[in-house]
Design a protein that fits this description.
207 residues; alpha/beta; Rossmann fold; 5-stranded parallel β-sheet; 4-stranded mixed β-sheet; 9 strands; 19% strand; globular; binds guanosine-5'-diphosphate; binds adenosine-5'-diphosphate; nucleotide-binding
């Protein structure tokens, strides 16, 4: 059996740059980690692809997935459901590969309960004015939605104390560096590697 992969949870307010940072990490090829595609009931944005950006589902479909125990976590965020399908995460961790979840705070707290040995990283904006600017520049939300997202952001930033690490996304390359360093160090934590060394010691007399 391979050593089980590490669950990495990246949260942070809408517009802080989670998707941008994740894509930069994937492009960086620094480790074999898999992104878990979430399920949502929100409308598809232009350019988004079902099964790649999200699994886009109706409210009824999403609720039946919840009822069938198919979600690791889920939350309502600004009038829509978002959640992590359980099966992919379990299978990939069992294969010994790291899994990255990019999810909002309420869902992250559910994961914390279920998977306490995950690594919880909160991505923060330099400040709220910059956050609003990023949401406006992105151009995917109308003014009312942006206001709701900024209001939610203040509540989310207040939840930072429940995370292991806070990473400021001032510049994408710097944020990526910081997160990669965290992941590298977390892989060296003794509880994660101890079984490998115990196995080695079992065969010590054959050296
Ligand atoms: N709990 C939970 N939140 C999610 C999931 N997928 C995405 N989110 C979060 O839902 C919020 C809204 O996502 P979205 O509408 O795509 O906006 P965007 O992240 O600003 O592009 C963001 O904070 C996402 O990180 C999920 O599977 N579970
Ligand atoms: N470090 C950064 N500096 C400036 N703009 C950024 C930075 N990171 C992301 N952005 C921009 O901010 C907007 C929101 O980023 P996005 O990755 O969609 O955020 P999230 O996934 O957290 O909602 C996008 O237009 C993106 O290009």
């Amino acid at each position: 059996m391979p050593e089980r992969g590490m669950l990495i949870v990246l949260s942070g307010p809408s517009g802080v740059g989670k998707g941008t940072v994740r894509q930069a990490m994937l492009a960086d090829d620094f480790r074999d980690f898999q992104y878990s595609v979430s399920m949502t009931t929100r409308q598809m944005r232009p350019g988004e692809v079902d099964g790649q950006d999200y699994y886009f589902r109706t409210k009824t479909e999403f609720e039946s997935e919840i009822a069938n125990g198919g979600m690791l976590e889920y939350a309502k965020y600004v009038d829509n459901y978002y959640g992590t399908p359980l099966k992919y995460v379990n299978q990939t961790l069992d294969e010994g590969r790291d899994v990255l979840l990019e999810i909002e705070v309420k869902g992250a707290m559910q994961v914390r309960e279920k998977c306490p040995d995950g690594v919880f990283i909160f991505l923060t904006p330099p400040d709220l004015a910059e956050l609003k600017q990023r949401l406006t520049n992105r151009g995917t939300d109308d003014a009312a939605t942006i206001d709701k997202r900024i209001k939610t952001a203040s509540e989310e930033i207040a939840m930072m104390e429940n995370y292991d690490y806070a990473v400021v996304n001032d510049k994408v390359s710097l944020a990526v560096d910081r997160i990669e360093k965290i992941i590298e160090s977390e892989h060296l934590r003794v509880p994660r590697v101890i079984d490998r060394y115990k196995g080695m010691l079992k065969h010590a007399d054959q050296v």
